[in-house]
Amino acid sequence: IYQNYFEEVYELVSQADIDVIAHLDLIKRYATESVGNYTFDKYKAIIEKILLKAIERGIGIEINTSGLSKSGLKETFPSMAVLRLYRALGGEILTIGSDSYQAKTVGFNQEIALKMAKEAGFDKVVFIIKKAIEEGVEASVISERYIAECKKDMDAMNVRPATTHPLATQEICG
């Protein structure tokens, strides 16, 4: 089951118009109860293939903390081993998510994800809220600035603009 899943993820990373692989090893959320969690060493070759393709295409990965609250799993998506491999291969684009469907759970276990990123060798993190406090402005001002810079960079690289621009602050109901 895991081999087939990772092969599908490789196809996704090879062909899809995506910026980040969210929940890279999400299957473990559903397969752990029936077949157990996967062993990193057994699937390292296909995971490395996925990560190399992602790096080649400028696709990042997400540390998602939602697995930490799942009974029987208690780990992030992806595992620390995958995160370390991604960094060792030259991966630089990293996002942090928590699968928040309520305002009160936004940033759930963010401190754990940040610690993992640091332990894996990531040393640059953009903190929008911290920057907003330092500048004495709303976080949306900083976010809009980063979004504008991103659009400018994408335009300079002749990347097609996105057709939708969902923002967590507008999509999550409190």
What would you note in describing this structure?
Helix content is 52%, strand content 6%. The protein is mainly alpha-helical. α4 links the parallel β2 and β3. α4 packs across α5. The longest helix is centred in the C-terminal third of the chain and has 18 residues, at 139-156.
DSSP strand tally = 3
Mean pLDDT: 85
What letter string, H or E per element, gives the SSE order? Answer: HEHHEHEHHHH
- How far apart the termini lie comes to 37 Å
Residues in β-strands, percent: 5-15%
In short:
By secondary structure, the protein is mainly α. The longest helix is centred in the C-terminal third of the chain and has 18 residues, at 139-156. It has 8 helices and 3 strands, in the order αβααβαβαααα.
Keyphrases for this structure?
6% strand, mainly alpha, globular, 3-stranded parallel β-sheet, 174 residues
Topology:
Blueprint: H1 2-15, E1 20-21, H2 27-35, H3 40-56, E2 60-64, H4 80-88, E3 94-97, H5 110-120, H6 128-135, H7 139-156, H8 168-171
Parallel strand pairs: 1-2, 2-3
Helix pairs in contact: 1-3, 3-4, 4-5, 6-7
